[in-house]
Amino acid sequence: MKKTFTLLIGMVLSVMILNAQEEAPPKALSYKAIIRKSNGQLLVNKTVNLRIGILQGSKDGITVYSETHQPTTNEFGQIDIEIGRGTPEIMTEFDLGIDEYFLKTEVDVEGGTNFQLLSVTQLLSVPYALYAGEAGEAKNGFVSEYTDGDPRPVLHENGNVSLGPTITPYWDSWFKLNVNGPLNITTGNKSWGADVILNAMNKGGNMFSVSSVGSMAPCPGSFWITTVDPVGNLNYNGSIVMKYNGNVGINTLNPTSKLDVNGAVFIEPGGQDYGALLALNSKPAAGGKMYIIGSTAGPAFEGQGKFLIRTEDWSSIFLMDSEGNVGIDLGKEGTPKYKLDVAGDINFTGGLFKDGSPMSGDYNTLINKPDLTKYATKEYVDGLQSQITALQKVLESSGLIVKDADGNTYNTVTIGNQTWMKENLKTTKYINGDPIPNVVDGTEWINLITGAYCWYNNDAESYENPYGKLYNCYAIMDNRKICPVGWHIPTLYEWNTLLNYLGGPNVAGGKLKEAGLMHWLSPNTGATNVSGFTALPGGRRLNTDGTFNGTNWIGSHWSATSANNKNYYIIDLFAAQQLVNIPSAPKVFGASVRCLRDF
């Protein structure tokens, strides 16, 4: 199926400029824009068909003027047109000063007439150039000098613009835009959020940000970037702060070191062929020493005072505790009992010493390790394999080993009278062996009427482990079934049985969520995982356009109960709260699956 090509406008400059030397108001307005693809990539050296319209009264008002242009983007994805000099489509006389007007932009990236809406933006005030003859007295436009209480911007002789009282004459003469007060930049119709772009491509590559010099909370004399949580509250700790002394803090307002990070740090390998690197400079001037300070506190298995190095899937672990004991590959919850505690064979060259004296004798004898060479025969190995296969069948039939149609095995947990999978489903097949289609394209996904799965962001490498796959409702309700034999998709009644056992929906979310911030975003409210369910934020695929959102802050799970003939109930858990939400979702929604044992 042909993919839909979605465009975004990045840093739209709807700048209307006087470009005529005559006394009458100009008949053309300059319009510049940067065109990007949906993945943020610039669309360069491409001829597009752009339609400009002016709507009267509202965003859905009557089009009083429209025209088309066929500009070609430059190497930076920028187009530059003059509104008023295109090919007219609709021409109606109108007065910008007596009503509200909106600028509507549409584009066809292939140069045809299959236009896609980019934005509809209100013309909040008439530019100074259009009201040059009456700017001094008009209620809109610019003024030449600021008057207390006047909301209009000041246009200085050098072309600079000020909003609010002048800070200092020096600032107003240097900067093209001077704002005395808070500045709020919203997303508009852009899907990736609000942008502030400092273009330094032709100025030596330098960009400058001047920090606050005030003394107000939370961080006086600092340059501060903060966030809001998923429900819109200002998150003071989710910030980047640079103090006046040069210290930088991430997720902390009072950095005490040159870089102070409150939380986990993830280092990607980038273009290096040897993997990710963290280098601590131990040059002779620093005494040739490197220090790594372990944690002084930690949730659950990490414990207090432990220094931990591990692989992402916990298959290999190096741990040193506060007593100086070192453990290698002791498991996720293992604790070393000796100065060196190793789960596995040790290979070494040289002598083996005890209390400073060399030990003698055969290594196998010293540790009572048997000589296994006599067992290394094909007959012996084949016999062991037969016993293992028979044991696996017994365990699978008894439900002690849970295996899906792909051969993936799952850990389980019993909560009350129910036994649940501790992991999200990963199968690509129904239990009869028929394949479940993997649908990548968003438009195809939202038009499906049969079962399908995908990975979050269509990225198997990053999201298969530990989040599993996202399935549409057609897959979970297919008669061929996707849960392993002896397991099923839980009904809403069975989900409520679990929630009520854990104290009800208002608190059960915290008891179901994996503790800590390894996968959930801060604050991961109330997360204890006392149930052992280990719920993860696998995100979801939207039914509106087939895009993805929510990884790390929401986990959505299907139920087998319909809300109506179009929707089924889902179970939502959130990073920012411990309650469980139970909305319904269309059948083409993509969510995680947890299976429940039949008995």
Structure notes:
By secondary structure, the protein is α+β, with helices and mostly antiparallel strands. Helices cover 11% and strands 26% of the residues. The chain folds into five domains: 125 residues, Sandwich (Immunoglobulin-like), CATH 2.60.40; 49 residues, no CATH class; 39 residues, no CATH class; 75 residues, no CATH class; 195 residues, no CATH class. The strands form twelve sheets. The protein has a five-stranded antiparallel beta sheet, with no helix packed on it. A four-stranded mixed beta sheet has the order 12-13-14-15, with no helix packed on it. A four-stranded mixed beta sheet has the order 16-17-18-19, with no helix packed on it. The N terminus is likely disordered.
The total of beta strands comes to 35
Helical run tally = 8
Poorly predicted residue ranges: 1-25, 126-139, 205-217, 294-302
Q: Strand order, biggest sheet?
A: 6-4-3-7-8
**Helical coverage, percent range:** 10-25%
Number of domains: 5
